[in-house]
Design a protein that fits this description.
The structure is a homodimer.
Chain A: E1 5-10, H1 19-31, E2 35-41, H2 43-50, E3 60-64, H3 75-81, H4 86-95, E4 101-104, H5 108-120, E5 133-136, E6 139-144, H6 154-172, E7 178-183, H7 193-204, E8 209-215, E9 226-228, H8 231-256, H9 260-278, E10 288-290, E11 296-299, H10 306-321, H11 324-339
Parallel strand pairs in A: 1-2, 1-4, 2-3, 4-11, 6-9, 7-8, 7-9
Antiparallel strand pairs in A: 5-6, 10-11
Helix pairs in contact in A: 1-10, 3-5, 4-5, 6-7, 6-10, 6-11, 8-9
Chain lengths: 340, 340
């Protein structure tokens, strides 16, 4: 069993559950034979979907959960009250070491709460950062923290930097990833109190490739691989990224449809444009991990397609193979005397 | 003289000085006869440019300043040392009530420092916010504070909201402007410590149309007219706005140039696209004011064209006519017992 990556999948979470979720699981096990997926949720609904496909029965197991957490439900309450929800049951599989990772397209807030309370943080991890990959001109960057816990301390930001660098290097496969801290100028003396305190601590870290301050203007150009910031700022960046890209693309579409000549032009340019814009679409990069937990928790988009679900599942293999949780434990142990 | 708006213009500031700056001044006085422009800078350079145009000599006066502040110069030092720079001399004209406003395309940091130290804050104003207009789907929104002083207090954010609402209503001409605070969720209990403390104070303000939290995702859609935040967050939003729009537009251009078919399409679509993208180009909206000072200070883009310079000058008329500085003084006086 040790060569197999076991992924608990929330079959009921997200806008397209259970059909797209189940299809993503099928796609994953049909592509890789070193994966086992636990489909967690309502038996009838899941089995009904499964009956549409042929697959290796040993690679998929259905685990019953009778409740569902709705997308708009207040997270703390949902995790506390719905003990038999697909999210809580799936996370417990990770907690009990029956699964290596949990993947869900469900309620983001509940993922953050459940990750910390059900799966639990690795000892020494002060806060588990939520770390989505955002598209850039040259690829992707990991932005953390985008979670719900704001007003972080400098030592927490330093942990985020380490966790992010480890993830980018060992799971995403970027050698010696460049780490930057979000700031409002390039100079070390710039910034708010938090950034000014964190900057010298990051400079002291010999285990990461810290390149200094990153202005938000430079982020879309892909100047660094790991972008560290406090969660309020991370949320502002992530949501502005999504919002501005969405608005600009729709404004451009309106522009293209505004005259007959431009409509013809748009028709000719469409395939090339589509390919370009696709590379800037966050949804193609699978899931965002919640780092620093006793097992991996991955959140995919609420409207994830089967391809995103499949990518999110396959992402878990590298995490398991590289034994990230253990590496985090070691790194924290080495670090503790200094920063705790 | 009282019906004339007197604008001191930094003839040496910005990438295109003095030629574009002088041309902008000429355009302004040729369009409006209720303006007088003081062109501040090196006599020879300015007179050389002026000799190219015909204009009403009474509307333009050259004021000598023998020094220049470079674009990359450390601001505090520059303002302190270069007493005879075009920026300091121009700001002094406002301080001494010889001009109603100062317009510059020069060093942003120096504008912020000089605005507060040379022109000076209105009594009771705790911090003078820098407030650029950012383009949205429906028009523009005023984003403040984007200045250099971070880690603001709740009472300062409340002042920003008031100053911003006053500017949008009386200078830009938006009736009963909607004011929102940047937050990471719609609910009142969301946010960092600063936002949670500020939110109820804004709700209590009967003189502004406070609509609550605004998520950064919604900003490009134009959900509110005045967007209030602390300067670190303001800088992140402003610079990401510029950076992401720039990267996306260049990625789209590359996409359009990638195949022969798409190239032909691009050629046909170009006029319509150009018009659309122009509306999302921050540079078309003239200058960003530094609010709460004893006179108006307006910063235009470093690479401002004559049109932007002209627009920035003309913007000052409404500020003068509406007697904004006095209205701020009254509003602060009414407010002082409660919030100081």
């Amino acid at each position: 069993m040790s060569d197999i990556t076991r992924v608990a999948l929330d079959a009921m979470g997200g806008d397209n559950a259970p059909s797209m979720i189940v299809q993503g699981a099928i796609d994953a096990v049909n592509e890789r034979d070193d994966i086992k997926v636990f489909l967690v949720g309502k038996l009838d609904a899941i089995n009904n979907e499964l009956s549409k496909y042929t697959f290796n029965k040993e690679q998929i197991e259905v685990v019953e959960a009778t409740e569902e957490i709705e997308m708009a439900e207040p997270p703390v309450n949902a995790i506390k009250k719905k003990k038999d929800s697909s999210m809580v049951v799936g996370m417990k599989l990770v907690k009990d070491k029956k699964a290596d990772a949990f993947v869900t397209a469900g309620n983001s807030g509940a993922v953050l709460v459940g990750g910390q309370t059900v799966v639990g943080r690795i000892k020494g991890i002060k806060r588990a950062p939520f770390a989505p990959l955002i598209p850039t001109r040259t690829g992707v960057s990991l932005l953390l923290d985008c979670g719900a816990n704001v007003d972080a301390r400098p030592d927490q930001l330093v942990q985020f930097a380490r966790l992010g660098a480890m993830y980018m290097e060992q799971v995403v496969g970027i050698k010696n990833p460049k780490v930057g801290i979000v700031n409002i100028g390039a100079e070390e003396e710039k910034g708010n109190a938090l950034v000014k305190e964190t900057f010298p601590l990051l400079k002291e870290c010999t285990d990461i490739n810290f390149i200094g301050s990153v202005e938000s203007r430079e982020i879309p150009e892909g100047v660094c691989d790991v972008i560290v910031c406090e969660a309020f700022v991370g949320n502002v960046i992530l949501k502005l990224y999504e919002g501005l890209a969405g608005t600009l693309i729709s404004v451009i579409k309106e522009g293209l449809m505004s005259t007959t000549k431009s409509k013809i032009g748009a028709l000719l340019a469409k395939p090339a444009l589509k390919k370009t814009l696709k590379s800037f679409d966050a949804s193609t990069y699978g899931g965002a991990p919640l780092l620093g937990l006793e097992g991996l928790v991955v959140k995919t988009h609420g409207n994830a397609s089967n391809i995103e679900v499949k990518n999110s599942i396959i992402q878990c293999i590298a995490f398991k193979e590289q034994d990230i949780a253990n590496k985090v434990r070691e790194s924290i142990a080495n670090d503790s005397p200094k920063n705790d």
